[in-house]
Model the fold of this input.
Amino acid sequence: MGYNVLIVDDSQTMRRVIRKSVDLSGLPLGECWEAGSGEEALNLLGSHPIDVILTDFNMPGMNGLEMIREIQKNEKHGRIPVVLITTHSHDWVIQEALSLGVKGFIRKPFHPEAIRDLLSQVMEEKSV
Amino acid sequence: MFEEIRQSAVGAVSKVFEEMFFIFPEELGESAGAGGGEAQGGGDENPSGSIRAEIEFYGVPSGKIILILPDGLARKMTGNLMGMDEAEVGDPEILDMIGELNNMISGNLFFLLKRKGEYRLTKTKAERVSAAQAQTEPQDGGMEIHFSADGERIKLTIHLES
Done:
């Protein structure tokens, strides 16, 4: 059975681009869900078996890091690996993300290979 | 500082257009920015109007970044990126894509500037504007940088708060 992916980005265009990259990755993935906000992502986590989360940082309402903090409050979801896909590559965002245990960063714009490589690495770590 | 920002802005626009859309924008000279040059967009010859996206940034200094590009180019880029026929592309998709485009340009601009300190970007607001509005922007000054891409003109304006 493949790994289920949750894509979180308030831009529908960006979700579609990320999803296309995930589909093209050739990795053994299962279902792929999309959320347009951190709040929507938290709801989806409650009802779907998610294995990895790809999230934007700058979103209205809860930002990506605030969403990760909320996820980590939940014992069941707290260990789901998270990858940040963002235009924000300032030190303070990276430091804060690292302290929250984020598994990797992809800076927009990105090549599809960047998503494939990072997803592959996360899946490998998860299977160990 | 202005030259450093201009160079970073040119670098950011080139990177985002090339990597995301396989479009290679060319920076136009200053004289072309006032309405000359072969590239079109935002003028009377562009009856479909333009798309304008604005993002604010907070830091030292604070300001805003405005991206304007003609409807035809915005539609084409959206269609290509989303794998849709241009005729199927609607305003919600175009505005979302141009907003995200300005977000990426702004994020990369600050990355290239390598300035220390904290910068926060707001969410981009994107809207459709008339050709006349596109031409008169910016009304309150700012650094204007013009590009030509696929025969159309793109305008990036950076306002810094004094």
